[in-house]
Design a protein that fits this description.
The complex is a heterodimer of chains A (114) and B (109). With 114 residues, chain A is an all-beta fold. Chain A has strands spanning 4-7, 10-13, 19-25, 32-38, 45-51, 57-58, 67-73, 76-81, 90-97, 104-105, 109-113. Chain A is globular and about 35 Å long. Chain B is mostly beta strands and 109 residues long. Classes of the chains: A mainly beta (114), B mainly beta (109).
């Protein structure tokens, strides 16, 4: 299947700093990329949908000024958690898809804010 | 609203067969997906159904009935490594994936 690379896999940062997570589709051009957040023992929670060259669409309750998404090309989307706080600690996962095919997931990023 | 229901947890014995059900109510339908997720890892794709019927892929099979808003994932010859969460997701009319909460499958020797 297609490969989606997410980096970094783990990051620990201090409260108040910003963290950038990259999501790359390595062997296909993704029309859409999705960013999810997952708390322990819970399912995926969609944060935002990102289409190349346009602004991301955020789900209700997700602060767009806190979770900055940039989708600069068909193969790269980034999520920046700004002014991170301990409650932002979570597992963040991106996925990339082409309209009629399944979503391919990155490896996920475990963010710990201390 | 949109809703995906699947059991929270199931237990089965190594070598046996288990069926994980998923019912859905969504705005439109453009396919149903099953993913496997081991703890601490991202989901991995298992199966995709867009037409009614059974799709078989090795030890795993997935069934869909669009008129009933129902799907199941069937796992045969269970192995210990099959212990994981199984996520049902439906792609709606906006091509957005709506996720179930996942079914934690516990395999016992």
């Amino acid at each position: 299947g297609a490969v989606v690379s997410q980096h970094p896999s783990r990051v620990i940062c201090k409260s108040g700093t910003s963290v950038k997570i990259e999501c790359r589709s390595l062997d296909f051009q993704a029309t859409t990329m999705f960013w999810y957040r997952q708390f322990p023992k819970q399912s995926l929670m969609l944060m935002a949908t990102s289409n190349e060259g346009s602004k991301a669409t955020y789900e209700q309750g997700v602060e767009k000024d806190k979770f900055l998404i940039n989708h600069a090309s068909l193969t790269l989307s980034t999520l920046t958690v700004t002014s991170a706080h301990p409650e932002d600690s979570s597992f963040y996962i991106c996925s990339a898809s082409i309209r009629d095919f399944e979503a391919f997931f990155g490896q996920g990023t475990r963010l710990t804010v201390v | 609203g949109q809703n995906i229901d699947q059991p929270t947890e199931m237990t089965a014995t190594e070598g046996a067969i288990v069926q994980i059900n998923c019912t859905y109510q969504t705005s439109g339908f453009n396919g149903l997906f099953w993913y496997q997720q081991h703890a601490g890892e991202a989901p991995t794709f298992l199966s995709y159904n867009v037409l009614d019927g059974l799709e078989e892929k090795g030890r795993f099979s997935s069934f869909l009935s669009r008129s009933k808003g129902y799907s199941y994932l069937l796992l045969k010859e269970l192995q210990m490594k099959d212990s994981a969460s199984y996520l049902c997701a439906v792609r709606d009319s906006n091509y957005q994936l709506i996720w179930g909460a996942g079914t934690k499958l516990i395999i016992k020797p």
